[in-house]
């Protein structure tokens, strides 16, 4: 199989991150430096930074209520990175991102294949947020946000926006542009004061305490697998 898939299936990192490792010359197969598209099979001596990959030890799927100030990265040199914050005994990585200034639900795993399936844009997978802003939420703001906003040179997809209270609204996105909600609000001269993610597809934050994490339930994994046409093992 392709080297990026081989690496991701060990739980070391996602395929995308594996490609970066290969491109930087940090991966070898049986002593030879790997290139993009190299093939590796069971029994091959595959190493990253000179260290052999550990054999696959089972997949982990975690829901974390990320606090503000924690960064959604695997980079160990970044203080407050989400991997060190969780402190899981297995090597895990976040599925997507949640801004350092935002809080709420983020998923982590060692299953490299599921990352691409969830993040794939054409999947239009729902993510739900509750947002507090610095100005009253008006009907025109709700209408403008829901029909699409031009940010980063593109117009966002139509989305579901509902007013919760004078300064709070709920939004369900099916895409994930960089700091999308904050940029959308800024286009209407609103500033986000608090942003919390409540749901990713069928996985809900629920009563999970800030800073706490839990394994996904068997029911959640089954439902998620059905939505992705993928078996979570």
Query: What is the total tally of β strands?
Result: 15
Flag low-confidence runs: none
What's the mean pLDDT score?
92
CATH architecture of the largest domain: 2-Layer Sandwich
Helical residue percent band = 10-25%
The CATH homologous superfamily of the largest domain is named: Pseudouridine synthase I, catalytic domain, N-terminal subdomain
Could you spell the SSE succession in H and E letters?
Answer: HHEEEEEHEEHEHEEEEHEEEH
Distance between the termini: 20 Å
Q: What is the subunit arrangement here?
A: single chain
Query: How many distinct helices?
Result: 7
Give the strand content.
25-35%
Major beta sheet summary: 9 strands, mixed
Which CATH top level class of the largest domain fits? Alpha Beta
The gyration radius over C-alpha positions equals 19 Å
The geometry reads as: elongated
GO molecular function: RNA binding; rRNA pseudouridine synthase activity
Pfam families: PseudoU_synth_2, S4
Domain RNA-binding S4: 1-58
Family: Belongs to the pseudouridine synthase RsuA family.
């Amino acid at each position: 199989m392709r080297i990026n898939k081989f690496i991701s299936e060990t739980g070391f990192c996602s395929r995308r991150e594996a490609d970066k490792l290969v491109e930087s010359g940090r991966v070898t197969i049986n002593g030879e430096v790997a290139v993009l598209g190299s093939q590796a099979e069971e029994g091959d001596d595959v190493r990253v930074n000179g260290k052999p990959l550990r054999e696959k030890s089972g997949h982990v799927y975690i829901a974390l209520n990320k606090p503000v100030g924690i960064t959604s990265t695997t980079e160990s040199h970044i203080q407050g990175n989400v991997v060190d914050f969780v402190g899981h005994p297995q090597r895990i990585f976040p599925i997507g991102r949640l801004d350092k200034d935002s809080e709420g639900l983020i998923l982590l795993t060692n299953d490299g294949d599921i990352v691409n399936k969830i993040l794939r844009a054409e999947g239009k997978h729902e993510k739900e947020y509750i947002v507090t802003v610095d100005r009253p939420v008006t009907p025109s703001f709700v209408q403008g946000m829901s029909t699409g906003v031009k940010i980063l040179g593109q117009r966002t997809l139509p989305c579901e926006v509902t007013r919760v209270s004078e300064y709070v609204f709920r939004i369900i996105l099916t895409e994930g542009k960089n700091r999308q909600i904050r940029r959308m609000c800024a286009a209407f001269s609103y500033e986000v004061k608090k942003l919390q993610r409540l749901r990713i597809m069928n996985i809900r934050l629920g009563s999970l305490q800030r800073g706490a994490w839990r394994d996904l339930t068997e029911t959640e994994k089954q439902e998620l697998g059905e939505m992705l046409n993928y078996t979570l093992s």
